[in-house]
Amino acid sequence: LESSHAVAYGMKLAKTMKPTQSVLINLSGRGDKDIGTVADLSGADVYDRPSMRGLTVKGAQGGAA
Fold this sequence. Notes:
- By secondary structure, the chain is mostly helical.
- It has one domain (2-52).
- The protein has two helices and no strands.
- The protein is elongated and about 45 Å long.
- The mean pLDDT is 74.
């Protein structure tokens, strides 16, 4: 999810920049590791592996950390 935060901030920052300036965002990492977090927070019914069942987000209400 860090990459999505970087893109969101990059879009916000770009609005304040001159046309001659550029924004570079490095998108690294594995999105498959985020799918469980997204599923838990959105309430989506997504399953890819046992660790993705139930609320597995740290600090999630009613679930294991």
